Fold:
Amino acid sequence: MTAGVPERTSAVLRRSFRVAPELGKGLWWTLVLAVLGAALQLVVPVTIQRIIDNEILGAANADTAAVLRLGIVALIAVGLAMAARWISLQRLVRSAASGLAQLRIKTFERLHAMSMLDLQAERRGALVARVTSDVETIQQFMEWGGVGMILGSAQVALAMFAMLVYQWQLALVVLAGVIVYTVLIVVSQRVLSRAHDRVRERVSDSLAATGEAISGISTVRAYGMEEVVIEKVDDTLDRQFAAEVRTAVLASALFSSAELFAGVLTALVVGVGVVYGSTWGMSAGTLVAFLFLVNLLIEPIQRLVETIDQAQSAGAGLRKILGVIDTPVSIPDPPDGVTLPEAALGISFRQVTFAYPGGPKVIQDVSVDIEPGERVAVVGETGSGKTTFAKLATRLLVPDRGTIAIDGIDIGQISLDSLRRSVAYVPQEGFLFHGSVADNVRYGRPGVDDATVRMAFGDLGLLDWLDGLPDGVRSEVGERGGNLSAGERQLVAITRAWIANPSVLVLDEATSAVDPALEVQIRRAIEYLTSGRTSITIAHRLSTAEASDRILVFHEGVIVEDGRHDVLIGAAGVYAAMHADWEGSTTSS
Structure:
């Protein structure tokens, strides 16, 4: 696809059939039924031609019985045509529903398979739009516009064929008009396609802006930024409105042209038929039948023009979705991935280097071995590479150079399922899902009952806190854990990691923003959690480093010191200076 030029809707549809085969399941039988329904409709103009030429104009007295028989034949044909069209419509709607469900699932799965860097490059609202509004736009088209396009195309083709059989000279006049109008439609739909792409982009921008404004409402209020945020949201909504208006104007002009085409084509057929009909040997019945065929041709063309707007909107949404599905998986799951043993595991870094896209090296030529069961604290100033080091250890990021091994196995050869079970990452702000405390803990081990969840809190010495909640393990945490404080959310996240029973724990310590009483509980829970396990803790408070088996000191992406607390203090280096500063700030506060 040429840069800046949208891929044609027909090409996008073909790709979507490959991605979601359910969309095309049984499509040939559906097309056969659609063609059959359209063919049966041709019985009506044939019957009318016979009645006019043979019974009304061809005989002194009309044969009422013959007219009645022909009328019954036409009625039966119309009934069968309706049945065939209804069955084909039902089949198409079912295949569309199942295919779009498959497409939605694949999109969601790809979002979860994408690297953190790819996800961070997109705003949350735009990603949500891919699996919600974009799929809904396609669904609306497939269930209605798509049906009309398939049935209408069959009807147009058969009506044109019947015209050629009846009177090929007049059929060529109609065909010329259809070709001219088709060229105009093709040109218009390309303009409309670009307009709908802009609309989908504006919808994504609006969802991102409104979602961000709602998620950050407490910060907005705290800083009195309501007017600024409202202005920003209004601006994105205004741009969406402007794009939608421009698209609607183009679409309405296209719709109106269909009415004009119908009137001009009908008048042309009547005029040419009256003037040249006798010369071509055309009977009155043939001309009337021809007008019925023109109506059968015009009606689906009008519907097709009306659905072009839906088709372009659906095509724009489908391009966005396929863009997600086509995104390469930078952290693939190896086909024959190794399963890690259920035991304390060691981790080895060998000459590991990493840089974020477009930025400097954050980790530079790092080599270190972490022994099974060893509790390691990682310290350093902000931006020194601590968090990146932790994410590399969990394969949330992939190094640009060098190797990382767990239990002697290259981390890229370990199955992602085994890796996620064996290596748990607890971020600084524990994310909670809408639901109860127990529901959130069960993400660590799906299927456990409330009693097991309560026991996990007991193992970590957190029953007093749990029993202080309104409904214990069944207490609702609210959206994103909004009913709990930051420290309480962390307690739930720690318990979730505990019940998962991982072999390796990577923790981004989160005690700097909690009250002292809760900090004690978090530290005690972490002590239980890391006991007997390999652990890497990003230590923001150096009291954590003091209690660790070993400390890694990062500076500008390099490990500059490595040892126990007392040894590093005695070395009077970077760590000793950091510790002295920390002690001074603790004393002054």
